[in-house]
Amino acid sequence: MKTDLKAAGNRGDERYDVLIIGAGAAGTACAIMLAQKGVRVAVSERDARACVKLAATGNGRCNLSNSAVSPARYNDPIFVAPALQAFGSAETAAFFASLGVPVREKDGRLYPYGNNSGCVVNAFVAAVERLGIRMTVSSEASGIERIRGGYRVRAAAKGKEKEFFAANVVFACGSNATLGKDSLSLMTSLGYKRTACVPAIAPIPTALFKGVSGVRAIARGILTSGEEILADRRGEVLFRDDALSGMLAFELSSAYARALRTGRKDLSLALDFAPDISAAHAEKLISSAPACDIRGSLNGFVPRALAEKLAVIAGLRPSDPKEGRCSAVAAALRCTTALAGEDPQIKQAQVVCGGLEVSAFDPRTMMSLTDRGLYAIGEALDVDGECGGFNLQWAWSSAAACARSITENIS
Question: Residue 1: its pLDDT value, please?
Fold first, then answer.
């Protein structure tokens, strides 16, 4: 006979209104939002401390949100719309201000005023302690079981089996991107379906620029599949021997990941290193230079090492005749490479494209459509946004939708 939630409480077992599995960005925020409303909540976290990935996000600066947040910046606009509309960037700023973390905007991106992820993590830890949230770290959940009146969650803590009982369970385990782990089997064991996961917001694999690792340049990047433009962005690119990194690559990588997941193979990336200058104008500038040396002319637009690489890619040689050289050098500032369709490295990715199928959850509440009191939030769901604070915004928005639903149901 299955354990009854009321009987578990009478035996003195650990029983809560809500148990959250995962103390990442979404899980910890949800716990705080619930505790602020007087809900008795516990959190089980497999790592030795909460918010490990959050501490590393945005190169340690923690890009909390973006003033341009909209459903169109996500892979599933229809599903994310209700949560984003109810809790957007303005609500995010107010939430963090209430925790003692004012935010400021730079180029549309919202950062903690201290410009450091430690500000956010420390504020979260302080709120957990102040609100009396039961945080169990080094506690890895191994199973979720439906029982009468709620759920039983088994977890391994320091080699010992531990059980939690709760009327509501929030699955907030994130993904295996960066320092994470793929824990979706906890939900698939209950019958929930998942989609394939591809690393996103990560360096885009290509060996075209091998030999110029560490060089940075400003460029326009256009990702295409056949004749279709998948993404068109401008920004700084950081070259590596095996990949393109930097903000430009990250902003293109979400579209790249989604294309890989749908099985597209005809992917190409065009890079324009003089995006504000027409080809004719670039040729004129080069022809008016003191000397029309191939590498020297390119060096006026890009760093020397990259200039030499672009000359090689374009097939230009110092011995080429001067006739037509200016137009050839100008053309070398624009190169296109076919991408091999390789997955980015998961440990270098900030998020994944994929997760639990959202069709099983209510977009207004994040609650399962079949199991009352069972929720999934954040990166655990098949929701991913573009680079620039959109994924953390989803963490806060989905956490708020979940917390609001649980609070209303309890009251």
Answer: 38
pLDDT band at 3 (very low <50, low <70, confident <90, very high): low
HEC per residue, the chain: CCCEHHHHHHCCCCEEEEEEECCCHHHHHHHHHHHHCCCCEEEECCCCCCCHHHHHHHHHCCCCEECCCCHHHECCHHHHHHHHHHCCHHHHHHHHHHCCCCEEEECCEEEECCCCHHHHHHHHHHHHHHHCCEEECCEEEEEEEEEECEEEEEEEECCEEEEEEEEEEEECCCCCCCCCCCCCHHHHCCCCCECCCEEECCCEECCCCCCCCCCEEEEEEEEEECCEEEEEEEEEEEECCCEEEHHHHHHHHHHHHHHHHCCCCCEEEEEECCCCCCHHHHHHHHHCCCCCCHHHHHHCCCCHHHHHHHHHHCCCCCCCCCCCHHHHHHHHCEEEEECCCCCCCHHHCCEEECCECHHHECCCCCEECCCCCEEECHHHECCCECCCCHHHHHHHHHHHHHHHHHHHHHC
* Global model pTM greater than 0.85: yes
